[in-house]
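VOC family protein
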Amino acid sequence: MDEGGIVFFRTGALDAVVDFYTKRVGATVWREQPDCTILEYDGFHFGFCDRADPETDGILTFVVPDRGGVDAAHERLAAAARETPHLNETYGIYQFFADDPEGRVVEFQCFE
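Structure:
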């Protein structure tokens, strides 16, 4: 990929955060840099850079094709999940929220 974009976040727990997103979310390491790791999940690129002041605002939303994908993600993230998957009629999505090791909000959803 030489086009597109990457969202970066500061982290105070680089190894734990990378492990969470690779082992539990299902992302892969796309690029390693001296103090940053860039991950990829189905075309979505996001990176974490080792810094003293972690950045935890925002939501990392992972879009999957169907409810089965949301349910499978919930099984992998059960210990970190805030809720069970459910239909959000307002937005026409099936979704759930979880927290990463530093408290960033992670969402898995599919459009209905």
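The first strand starts at residue 7 and ends at 11.
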